[in-house]
Amino acid sequence: MKKFLIISICLLLFALLTAVATFFMVNQYISSKSVRMPATTTATVEDVASSTANSIKNKIPDAGIPLSNIPLTEKQESVAKAVGINPDTFVITKEMYQCAAEKVGDGRVQDIMAGDSPNAIEVAKLSLCLGS
């Protein structure tokens, strides 16, 4: 029985030493590899948002986009009326569009114009753009 315990302890110590040695060898191998990061530009979020908003702003006619020319869903129309907008006479200006793109993102503005309804938080953010 004593012989069995001594052999078992020796095998466990050997297994432990093997595991530790393997860990250090793998760690050394990984750390010796140089990792090359791709070159990146240093544009800020504000620069990207501004350039996106400006490119969209340039696509809007000087007279703006009458809301009556955009097919509104019933939910969109009810949201517009709830915030005091008359869909028949309201005009979206370049400044309003740029403000909306900065507040909720250009992709989201495009989704809303394509028929998706803004949620309550977006309505609050977009209402700040009405005076633009």
3D architecture notes:
By secondary structure, this protein is mainly alpha-helical. The chain has two domains: 1-36; 45-127, no CATH class. The chain is 61% helix and 3% strand. Helix 2 (45-57) packs antiparallel against helix 4 and helix 4 (94-104) crosses helix 5 (106-113). The protein is rod-shaped and about 95 Å long. Mean pLDDT is 78; it is low at 40-46.
Write a brief structural summary.
The protein is mainly α and 132 residues long. The protein has helices at residues 2-32, 45-57, 74-82, 94-104, 106-113, 120-127, and strands spanning 65-66, 91-92. It is built from 6 helices and 2 strands.
What's the topology here?
Blueprint: H1 2-32, H2 45-57, E1 65-66, H3 74-82, E2 91-92, H4 94-104, H5 106-113, H6 120-127
Antiparallel strand pairs: 1-2
List keywords for this structure.
single chain, 132 residues, mainly alpha, 2 domains, two-stranded antiparallel sheet, 2 strands, 61% helix, rod-shaped
